[in-house]
Amino acid sequence: MRKLRLVRIPRHLIIAASSWLSKIIIAGVQLVSVKFLLEILGEESYAVFTLLTGLLVWFSIADIGIGSSLQNYISELKADRKSYDAYIKAA
Fold first, then answer.
1. In whole angstroms, what is the distance from residue 22 CA to residue 62 CA?
2. Residue 4 has what pLDDT?
3. What value, to the nearest 5°, has the Cα angle with vertex 86 and ends 81 and 90?
4. Residue 87 contacts by C-beta under 8 Å, 6 or more apart in sequence?
5. pLDDT at res. 63
6. Which of 14, 27, 41, 52 meets the CB 3.0–4.6 Å disulfide criterion with 45?
7. Using the 8-state DSSP alphabet, how is residue 80 labeled?
8. DSSP type of residue 4
9. Structural domain count of the chain
10. Domain identity same for 87 and 65
């Protein structure tokens, strides 16, 4: 009588597959939500909604982590007991 061997799937493959599955699900939900929003808002209101959403995304991208990097520099300068006014003015 033979024993069945269970095949163990490597953890990184499970993580990669779940990542791809989540991206596919998100894309599907976005397609459905566009159709749903178009029906509810109409073409003109949907265009305004899309424009405002796009502007918000651009503003959040424009930050480019300036706040986080500024916080790191200020922490280093405080630890060295140096002035950090120039960094705050430049940001």
1. 27
2. 74
3. 140
4. 70, 73, 74, 77
5. 73
6. 41
7. T
8. P
9. 2
10. yes
Shared domain for 37 and 60, answered yes or no, is no
Helix orientation angle between 11-41 and 43-62, rounded to the nearest 10 degrees:
140
Domain coverage including residue 88? 52-91
Residue 37 token pair: 């929003």
Q: Which tokens in the block code for residue 47?
A: 């265009």
Q: Could you tell me where the DSSP H helices lie in 1-91?
A: 11-41, 43-62, 66-79, 85-90
Q: Write the CA distances from 75 to 58, 64, 65, 82, integer angstroms.
A: 28, 19, 16, 10
Q: What are phi and psi of 45, to 5 degrees?
A: -65, -35
Q: Two tokens at 20?
A: 């791809």
Q: Are 48 and 38 in contact (CB under 8 A)?
A: no
Same domain, 58 and 32: no
According to the model, what pLDDT value does residue 1 have?
63
pLDDT mean by block of 10 residues, the chain; 91 residues: 78 92 96 94 95 91 78 83 75 63
